[in-house]
Amino acid sequence: MTPEETAQGTWDQPSTGSTETLHVVYIDWHIHPFRAERWFEIWEAGSARAMAFGAKGWSLTRNVEDPLHFRQASVWSDREDFERYWYSDEIATLREEAINYFNKPVLPVWHTLVAGE
User: Fold this and answer.
1) How far apart are CA 111 and CA 84, in angstroms?
2) Quick one: which of 20, 36, 44, 113 is 20 to 30 A from 71 by CA?
3) Other C-beta atoms within 10 Å of 70: how many?
4) pTM (2 decimals)?
5) Closest-CA residue to 94 (of 50, 63, 30, 34)
6) What is the C-alpha R_g of the chain?
């Protein structure tokens, strides 16, 4: 995987004709001023760990007009896999490490993937 792919996340697509329902979860992170780089250093690894818990893909994007706003997205076949990821000791530890860098609360928002490549 190239550094660009690592930084942008991954999206494994189901095969053509698949009837699998995919769920996309978005988490908006609003970072405190002067803390964005440190938060990113901590949280990029946490975002990538979603794949180890069954995510089909993940991404972490930064708003161009508001550089303190990041959006984490991940695609799941089963919402329970996301719950295992989000409440795992590993991710809870990373959230605790980064707690002084972002506004609370952080609320996952679910979507169903209806079209895409």
Assistant:
1) 18
2) 20
3) 22
4) 0.82
5) 50
6) 14
Beta-strand relationship, 109-112 and 57-62: unpaired
Spell out the per-residue pLDDT of the chain, length 117, in tens: 444 444 444 445 444 455 689 999 999 999 999 999 999 999 999 999 999 999 999 999 999 999 999 999 999 999 999 999 999 999 999 999 999 999 999 999 999 999 887
Full set of structural domains in the chain with CATH: 24-103 (3.30.70.100)
Residue 39: both structure tokens together: 């938060």
Residue 32 CB neighbour total at 10 angstroms: 13
- The burial class, CB within 10 Å (0-12 / 13-18 / 19+), for 14 is middle
